[in-house]
Specification:
Blueprint (H helix, E strand, L loop, with lengths): L8 H6 L20 H10 L3 H5 L8 H12 L9 E2 L16 E2 L3 E2 L7 H6 L6 H4 L1 H14 L5 E6 L1 H10 L4 E2 L3 E2 L4 H9 L1 H25 L3 E6 L7 H7 L1 H10 L6 E5 L5 H5 L5 E3 L6 H8 L4 E3 L4 H6 L2 H15 L4 E2 L12 H13 L1
Parallel strand pairs: 1-4, 4-7, 7-8, 8-9, 9-10, 10-11
Antiparallel strand pairs: 2-3, 5-6
Helix pairs in contact: 4-7, 8-10, 9-10, 10-12, 16-17
């Protein structure tokens, strides 16, 4: 029989069960805003794709241990969950799409033709095709010793398709969609059936990947629709929403599922996705969102990540107070509107967690 979690606040909040306080964690909490992470990356001196496993290189125990250590870095600041250190592009490597980072992700050539889509390999045996991820999860569970829950994740099919078709990040930092994303919108207009063919392949892979992570020991999973903020409703409804529904319908019930749709205001579609937790951006009013969904789902969010980068401790305290008041104590996981910016002062990151736990 599995040992009970010492801190199960996040799991209870995800299921809308009573909690003593609202749990807190952050997207990109194990990453570039942490000086210890930057120091580790410098000392390791290996390509990022080797740690993210977006490359076909042989697995090494050193890389596994590095991913475990990086995943655990936020534990020292008091977060209520650990998320596995990897990239949303990780499972594309066994499909034949190997991204390298220079410094952002690069795929050469991009995937745009029917022949290229058909050549992508299925991920039907994740235990062998994604063994690195499984090994990292098992080591994390062993090291955590039931102290905190472990979160696994995957990129949503449309977000992955944007990266594959663009051949690099489709998002221009701070300004929304990049010109590199234009071929995606062109495919939507001129060859929607080709895009659906790609999305079906990616959905099958994503399901196998998430269920594999659950089988290896993650206790919560999050689906990242990181390009939701650049999608008009009709595109979201046709090319994102049905694949969300399929994934959450076929996801193992052992782990709660979180849908993160970056700055998406199509709350009705997010609610109909079947996710038990909706991670919402600063564009969503949590009071209205909770009223509209009638307590049928939990919410995650939604402190503006810009405030952590640009604000004072008092600004952060005020933002957390407002968020906790709007989100209420039940069915709320405190998080950011999106991931931590790389230039966020680490003192602000620590203050966010401390004040969340104090309030």
């Amino acid at each position: 029989m599995e040992q009970a979690l010492k801190n199960d606040l996040l799991l209870r909040a995800a299921r809308c069960l009573p909690v003593e306080r609202v749990p807190v964690w952050m997207m990109r909490q194990a990453g570039r805003s942490d000086p210890l992470y930057r120091q580790m990356r410098q000392e390791l001196n290996v390509p990022l794709e080797q740690l993210f496993r977006t490359c076909p290189a042989p697995m090494s125990d050193t890389d596994v241990e590095s991913a475990v250590k990086i995943s655990l870095l936020p534990k020292r600041i008091g977060v209520d969950a650990i998320i596995v250190y990897k990239d949303i592009l990780t499972p594309l490597a066994p499909m034949g799409a190997h991204f390298r980072f220079d410094p952002g992700p690069i795929l050469d050539p991009p995937i745009r033709t029917q022949a290229q889509i058909d050549a992508l390999q299925p991920v039907n045996e994740p235990a062998s095709q994604l063994a690195f991820t499984g090994k990292v999860i098992r080591r994390l569970r062993e090291t955590l010793n039931e102290e905190l829950p472990l979160i696994g994740f995957a990129g949503a099919p449309l977000t992955l398709a944007f990266f594959l078709i663009a051949g690099e990040s489709p998002i221009k930092r701070g300004t929304g969609v990049s010109e590199k994303a234009l071929p995606v919108f062109q495919m939507i207009e001129e060859a929607p059936e080709r895009l659906h063919r790609l999305l079906n392949k990616l959905t099958e892979m994503t399901l196998n990947y998430l269920n594999y992570q659950i089988s290896e020991g993650v206790q919560v999973v999050q689906l990242f629709e990181s390009i939701a903020d650049v999608l008009p409703r009709h595109i979201y409804e046709e090319f994102a929403f049905p694949y969300h529904q399929q994934i959450f319908a076929e996801l193992s019930p052992e782990a709660p599922g979180i849908l993160f749709a970056k700055e998406c205001n199509h709350l009705d579609l997010m609610h109909q996705s079947g996710a038990g937790v909706l991670s919402v951006g600063k564009c969503v009013d949590l009071v209205k969102a909770k009223a509209e969904t009638g307590g049928t789902v939990a919410f995650q969010g939604n402190v503006d990540n810009d405030i952590l980068r640009d604000g004072t401790p008092d600004d952060i305290t005020a933002a957390v107070e407002t968020c906790l008041k709007q989100g209420g104590k039940t069915g709320h996981i405190l998080n950011l509107s999106h991931g931590l910016h790389r230039d966020t002062p680490f003192e602000n990151v620590k203050h966010f967690v401390n004040i969340a736990k104090t309030l």
